[in-house]
Amino acid sequence: MERAGQTKGDSRSKRVVRRALVVLTALFGAALALVVHPQPLFAYSLQRGNIVLHARAPLPPEATAMLDDALTRVSRSPLYDAARTHHVFLCDTTGLYHLFSRGHESGGVTHTWATGNVFIRPADVRRGRVFDRFGAEKGGERTLAYFVAHEVTHAMTADHFGRWRTSRLSPFQNEGYADYVAYARPVDLARGRADLEAATLQMDPGRSGLYDRYRLLVGYLLQHRGLSVDQLLARRIDRADVERELVADGAL
Predict the structure, then answer these.
(1) How many folded domains does the chain comprise?
(2) pLDDT at 133
């Protein structure tokens, strides 16, 4: 009888475990579905060209001009594909942003999933400004349109070259090219070299949170060396080699 009781108890325990696994699997599936298709959480949307902006509150009229600006920036890139739709989600709370950025990305303002979906921290769409994790406004030229263009460029790069190949590139190639597109103007190479040699704050991505150093190197390779975007991103390039060449280049 004791053995039978143990068998009956074991059977009951297995059923409980199986049910728990079913529930966990369902929850994981639901979470994964939201990552791939977060639209159910965002009731409002606006599309300009191939960029769709999603929000949880009605979008103001200024959103149209902002999206047009971002679209103009990314469409200048040879990687631009008008047939590929990019979805950008405005997270109106820090918690929602953390949900989609997986927490460990919480220091950033924007995040691009492997699906190509872009998530942005709370922003003032009317003023075209994004807030960091402390609630401080990102100033200067890094507007909401800039951040949208930067992240969409990451998605375009991964689409064109493949995610594995893109992941093997140097950070200066990935972030520098995304910034180059997002700023939508040539880099002042002479001034950038002076800042690099002077070790100014903006040339230190770790301390400043800016990609000016990376954008400078990308600008040097594209504008001065004449590399194509395909050549720039075809293989990993050593950042130190490019910096040494830039500093020594007497033609700048």
Answers:
(1) 2
(2) 87
